[in-house]
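#onboarding

Welcome to the new folks! Below is a worked example of what a typical request in this channel looks like: someone posts a single protein sequence, and someone else replies with the predicted structure as tokens. Don't worry about understanding the tokens yet, we'll cover that in week two.

Example request:
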Amino acid sequence: MSDMRLQRWLAMCGVASRRRCEELITSGRVDVNGAAVTELGSKVDPDRDEVRVDGERVKAPTRRWYVALNKPVGVVCTGDDPAGRPRAIDLVASIPARLFPIGRLDEDSEGLLLLTNDGDFAEKVAHPRYEVPKVYRVTVRGIPDPTALAKLMEGVWLSEGKTAPARVMTLRKTREFTTILITLHEGRNREVRRMLAKVELPVTKLLRVQVGSVKLGTLKRGEWRLLAPWEVQALQEEQPQRPTAGALPPRSGQHRRPGGPDAARMPTRARPGAPRKGGAGGKGGGKFGKGRLPPAQRGSAPRPFSGRRRPDR
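Example response:
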């Protein structure tokens, strides 16, 4: 095997995503042949060099794993938690591989979390430049002002800059709470909560329901499943889509029906015996049908020419 960049090799081995591997290198936690390496441009030969992270030797995985987990509230996504809180990787401990989460869901949030040991796949799903949509169902206190929702759809200013426009849809309203659906293409730390706090909408519940084409579905809290091959392929082939204000992304696998707003309507054949449109009893013809006169006038005025002649008898 030819030489490759150290961070790419670590990601391929399932240590973490490529960006996280870069942080491990710059923090001095990676050794190559017994010497610490902190430069991102360093290269290794996987066949000859011995690479260790925190003293543990890195080996190439024999199988790629792609997992969907319903993360409960109170579970953290970090791999090393000094406080001893339950971790997402503990819920998939029965899988014989070293997995890591793709992106983050904070401790107070729940829902769909993807895990893998494929660093390149994680990079494709998590990095903002690929714009893989993440959909959240959020319950906020009170009834949002339309101006607040408009700000979310235009992007709000956070400490690190302005957020990309979000898709927002109101699902349910009560006197005390409102449930909205928010679609983002970024992955900043606690981004949804910070955006809603910026427009003065306190969050009471945050549930991630979809990542790209993968949906949470009926997966119960704390349970996981393997992604289907088509789901993995769909995420790898996800095409960037810039959101338009207030609109939701098309659901995975959804096709526009013939006759929809973006397709030409196909002519349909009427059932035998059914009234024709515009004829007697049809639409647009009034009480007596299009082109027909009331009975009192039929003898005093000629009928309109229909374009058809009676055969000569």
